[in-house]
Design goal:
The chain has eight helices and ten strands. By secondary structure, it is an alpha/beta fold. It has a single domain, classed as P-loop containing nucleotide triphosphate hydrolases (Rossmann fold, 3-Layer(aba) Sandwich). The strands form two sheets. Strands 6-7-8-3-9-10 form a six-stranded mixed sheet, with helices on both faces. The radius of gyration is 19 Å and the shape is globular. Bound molecules: adenosine-5'-triphosphate. Adenosine-5'-triphosphate (ATP) binds next to strand 2 and helix 1.
C-alpha cells in the first residue's frame, strides 16, 4: 500500500507477569477499510486492541495516528483522538435510555455563564443528535429514543453501541466480536451497519472468530498468532480453511505474505 496508515503500531510488547500477550506486534489500518483481526484464543487480539484504544499501556513499541507517534494514557485519551472502541460488554447502562447511553460522559449542555457541569443538559439537542445518528445508520426501527436500553434486543443494543461509536469516532472504530452474542438476523443487521459505517468513510477494526462474517465484510485480514501479526491476507485470494490454518499454526503462510 502506498497510502499512509491512519492507525499503526510497531513492535508493541505487553507482558502480564510471565505471559507475553503482545510480542513485538505490528499493525496497520488504512483509510476507508474494514480490517479484520483474527487469531486463536489467547493469541493477543484483545491485548492489541486494548493497547490501540488506551485501555492498557504497552511495555514497549510505538503507536502512530496519522503518522504521528501517540501515547494514550487511558481510553478517554484515545476517544479524544477519535478512536472509539465497542467492547463485547458494550459499556451501556441498561436502565438508562438510548439517548442517555449515547451521550454518557459527553452530554450536551445549554450555553450560559456557569461552569460546564452546572449548566442544564440540553435534552432536545441530544435527542435530535441521537435521532439523526440512528437515522443515518438506518436504525430508526427503534421507535422511542427515550426507551431504556434493557428493553432492546441484543442486535438493537449492538446497533446503538455502533451508532454511538460512529457518532463520536471521527477517525477509527474498533469492534470487538460485535456478532458473537447475536442470532442470524441480528448479525446480518450488524454486518450491514458495519458496511454503512465504512461507506461513511470511517475505517473499522473488526475482531471476530466468525470466519464467514470476516470473509463477508473485511477488505484485509490481519492474522494474529502468539502475540504478533503473522501475516495480512486478502479475503478474495485465500480460503477460509487456509486463514484458519495460518491462525492455528497448522499451516505457514507463503513467505511473501509473512509480516506484510
Ligand atoms: N489482565 C491480564 N492478566 C494476566 N494475563 C492476561 C491478562 N490479559 C490477557 N492475559 C493473557 O495474555 C494472553 C493474550 O490474551 P488476549 O486476551 O489478548 O488474547 P485474545 O486473542 O483476545 O484471546 P480470546 O480470543 O480468547 O479473547 C493470554 O495468555 C491471556 O491469558
Amino acid at each position: 500500500m502506498t497510502q499512509q496508515p491512519i492507525l499503526a503500531a510497531r513492535g508493541l510488547v505487553k507482558r502480564y507477569g510471565k505471559v507475553t500477550a503482545l510480542d513485538r506486534c505490528d499493525f496497520d489500518l488504512y483509510p476507508g477499510e474494514i480490517l479484520a483481526v483474527i487469531g486463536d484464543n489467547g493469541a493477543g487480539k484483545s491485548s492489541l486492541i486494548k493497547a490501540l484504544s488506551g485501555a492498557v499501556t504497552p511495555d514497549a513499541g510505538e503507536i502512530r495516528l496519522d503518522g504521528k507517534p501517540v501515547t494514550f494514557e487511558n481510553p478517554i485519551a484515545a476517544r479524544e483522538h477519535g478512536i472509539e472502541t465497542v467492547y463485547q460488554t458494550l459499556a451501556m447502562s441498561p436502565a438508562l435510555s438510548i439517548v442517555d447511553n449515547m451521550f454518557m460522559g459527553r452530554e450536551i449542555r445549554r450555553s450560559g455563564f456557569m461552569g460546564k457541569y452546572l449548566r442544564k443538559l440540553d435534552k432536545a439537542a441530544m435527542e435530535k443528535f441521537a435521532r439523526e445518528k440512528l437515522n443515518e445508520l438506518g436504525l430508526m426501527t427503534i421507535q422511542n429514543i427515550g426507551q431504556a436500553v434493557e428493553t432492546l434486543s441484543g442486535g438493537q443494543r449492538q446497533g446503538v453501541a455502533v451508532a454511538r461509536a460512529a457518532a463520536f469516532g471521527s477517525k477509527v472504530i474498533i469492534l470487538d466480536e460485535p456478532t458473537a452474542a447475536l442470532g442470524v438476523k441480528e448479525s446480518r443487521k450488524v454486518l450491514e451497519l458495519i458496511q454503512d459505517v465504512k461507506r461513511r468513510g470511517i475505517p473499522i477494526v473488526l475482531i471476530s472468530h466468525n470466519m464467514p462474517h470476516v470473509f463477508e465484510v473485511a477488505d484485509r485480514i490481519h492474522v494474529h498468532r502468539l502475540g504478533r501479526r503473522l501475516c495480512v491476507v486478502d479475503p478474495k485470494s485465500i480460503t477460509m480453511n487456509d486463514a484458519v490454518a495460518f491462525m492455528t499454526g497448522a499451516k505457514e503462510p507463503p513467505s511473501d505474505l509473512a509480516a506484510a
